[in-house]
Amino acid sequence: MDAIRTAAGRDGLAAIVARPSRAVIALDFDGTLAPIVPDPEQARAQPGAVAALAALAPHVASVAVITGRPAGVAVRLGDFAGVPGLEHLVVLGHYGAERWDAVTGTVHAPAPHPGVASVRSALPGVLAEAGLWHDTYVEEKGRAVAVHTRRAADPQGAFEALKRPLSDLAARHGLVVEPGRMVLELRPPGVDKGVALTEYVREVGAESVLYAGDDLGDLPAYAAVEKLRSDGVPGLLISSGTEVPDLADRADLTVPGPPELTAFLSDLSHTLSPT
After folding, report:
1. Structure confidence by residue, pLDDT tens digits, 99-116
2. What pLDDT, on the 0 to 100 scale, is given for residue 140?
3. Sequence-ordered list of residues with C-beta below 8 angstroms from that of 275, at least 6 positions apart, any chain
4. What is the DSSP track for the chain?
5. Which residues pair with 235 in a beta bridge?
6. 241-263, pLDDT tens digit by residue?
7. Could you report the per-residue pLDDT of 42-99, keeping only the tens digit for each?
8. Is the pTM of the predicted complex or chain greater than 0.90?
């Protein structure tokens, strides 16, 4: 298994291995379980990732996918439903605002924030005024709207040009902008992966936790694991890729991307169920 560079991370892994039945394995979807692709609708779980989770799940307290995607969309793209071994998988979508449980196969969620509909209506005009309507991809997320700039001739330039107008648009309708890798997401305030992870760890009564992510939206989950550590709950932080230095620098373990993370999860499943 890959070398873990921090003592806290080694303690986290040791706690997971020593008592896996009290461990939560939590992971982001895009860029972590699934490679980043230009069209978000074409994203799919890394080959072998679902099998690795299914091999791991019977030995731990819970496996949870925590994503900015709608929960149902993540389930569809990840092909998580009906997988033997993942009968108790939980998908926390929209940063925890939605929840899909494999046990019931249903999504539970509160009513959407009214500002999302207002932003959705105003967005074409804002993008056209910036001269970027045809250079961006708008992803409808139900409870949020994301503007991707990967298709632009200058993706980073388009990203920077849209920061201010999209932030102003979001603020006018009571939303916030969450930046990521060539994407700006307009969503309600007060929900993030850190809140979702902390609440879920408490719900399960976990005594250790692993979290893997790849982007700025995963930083709150990192902070949650660091807080859990200070409260006596060991944790392991994994960065999938190095494109976001703020994340990679805080990780206990950095892997190049979804293929290598899949291999790590597979190795961990074998460690927990030696033959």
Report:
1. 999 999 999 988 888 999
2. 86
3. none
4. -PPP-SHHHHHHHHHHHH-GGGEEEEE-SBTTTB---SSGGG--PPTTHHHHHHHHGGGSSEEEEE-SS-HHHHHHHHT-TT-TT-TT-EEEEGGGTEEEETTTTEEE--PPPHHHHHHHHHHHHHHHHTT-STT-EEEE-SS-EEEE-TTSSSHHHHHHHHHHHHHHHHHHTT-EEEEETTEEEEE-TT--HHHHHHHHHHHHT-SEEEEEE-SGGGHHHHHHHHHHHHTT--EEEEEE-SS-HHHHTT-SEEESSHHHHHHHHHHHHHHHS--
5. 209
6. 999 999 999 999 999 999 999 99
7. 999 999 999 999 999 999 999 999 999 999 999 999 999 999 999 999 999 999 999 9
8. no
Nearest-10 Cα torsion for 206, 252, 214, 249 = 140
For 17, list phi and psi in degrees, rounded to 5: -70, -35
List the beta bridge partners of residue 239. Answer: 213, 254
Q: How far apart are CA 1 and CA 258, in angstroms?
A: 15
How far apart (Å, rounded) are the C-alpha atoms in residues 212 and 261?
8
